[in-house]
Specification:
Blueprint lengths: L5 H4 L12 H12 L17 H13 L13 H7 L17 H13 L1
Length: about 110
């Protein structure tokens, strides 16, 4: 069995598993249901509040081969790639280490090449 840290092993995989952010997950699920998805979402807040997990679940819900639908299947190739951080369509940017102007310029340049 492959070793996984506690945080990764128990990371939420669906909106319903996200704890303490029901107002956010409900809003995102409703947006998907009503096909009123914004062109961008900004996830901000203190460390450990579910920003990255919620963003990944949203990415899976929108890129799922059965979707877009309010809950990702977590079984298709797209969902598995996003969960493993191997998706070519989803780029996760670590905001804590990319705060300066030079880092943002480098990110913009790298995104052009993707």
């Amino acid at each position: 069995m492959e070793y996984q840290t506690f945080a990764l092993r128990w990371r939420p995989q669906t909106f319903d598993e996200v704890v303490g952010q029901e107002h956010i997950t409900t809003t995102l699920k409703n947006a998907i249901r009503q096909n009123r998805i914004a062109h961008a979402y900004l996830f901000a807040g203190p460390r450990g509040t579910g920003k990255t997990s919620t963003a990944r679940i949203l990415a899976k819900a929108l890129n799922c081969k059965e979707g877009p639908k309010p809950e990702p299947c977590n079984k298709c190739e797209n969902c598995k790639e996003i969960t493993a951080s191997n998706s070519l369509d989803v780029l996760e940017i670590d905001g804590a280490s990319n705060r300066g102007i030079d880092e943002i310029r480098a990110l913009k340049e790298n995104v052009k090449l993707s």
